[in-house]
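Question (not urgent): is this output format expected?
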Amino acid sequence: MLMEDLGNKVVIPPRPSKRTLDLGVRYTPEFSCLPLKILMGTYLETIEMGADTIYTSGGSGPCRAGEYAMLHHKILQDIGYNVRMVVIESPNQFPFKFLKSIWELNQARLSIKAVIACIKRWWRKQIALDNIEKLSHVIRPREINRGMTTKVYREVLDWIEKAYTTEQVVEAEAAATDALRSIPQDSERDVLRIGLVGEVYVLIEPSSNHEIEEMLGNLGVEVNREMYLTGWIADNAWKESFEGVTARDAAAQYLPEVIGGHAQDTIGQTILCAKKGFDGVIQLAPFSCIPEIVARTILTKVSSDWDIPVLTFFLDEQTGKAGMATRMEAFVDLLRFRKRKRLIKAAR
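Got this back:
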């Protein structure tokens, strides 16, 4: 919506599929991480659909994610695709580069006031999308009819997508909220609470993690994902959110230095989950992601110190949904046994 408002003809990438990943694996280095491979496949699929320009986010600090755009562009050139790659850098760190990117995006040559209005409208829609997703995670483990939450959630996403003005977005969000809350629920059901932490891409993109939130919800788990797109954008666009600062403060005693990626967030958010009384934490990370490997090593100590079980999935093209489901079921069974044991002990 934002890109079209600024005068661009948008090619919507298809949802990442097995073909997407196969394309990415074919043209990227073997030990590159999963997000780089999926993005590579996505770029190739959108080029097939007619895209001639790719806008992507940049990066900074000791993490190779900041090099992705250059590597992707070089690979695309090597295999014969002459596309333009424009990197939108963080306005916090690279304000002039950011403004230049926005100017390039502004093909309609709108006034500054009009551009700001477009951005505000886009931001309100993004907030609505995140709010509805959060609500679905609360309702799914309590639904009486299995699969109803997922069905309704997909329907209401379409309502928000079709909304354009801020007023329409607010109305669509309210209607979506009512639709989800009207799903028959068992309020007495014993529901576990698990926090999801880790690298931003595999946390937010369902196709990269085999819809782990849906699988957990069907197991009777309320998922509390510790990172959403609005939070990630806020942290990188203007100032760190309260949650981001709090997580880094919590992690300071275990990892005081910035080592790239989301290592500090992963550690800090795990500690915050323990403080909030969560039953467990699941870490999601791309295979070969150095910051998350460091975080995983430290999480062993954090798990012991804060008495909270942690399960880690390192994801790549070899990760199967069935294998993940089996490990999750065992983890959830362990958490239920642990919870019952605590309740019995407290009752004595």
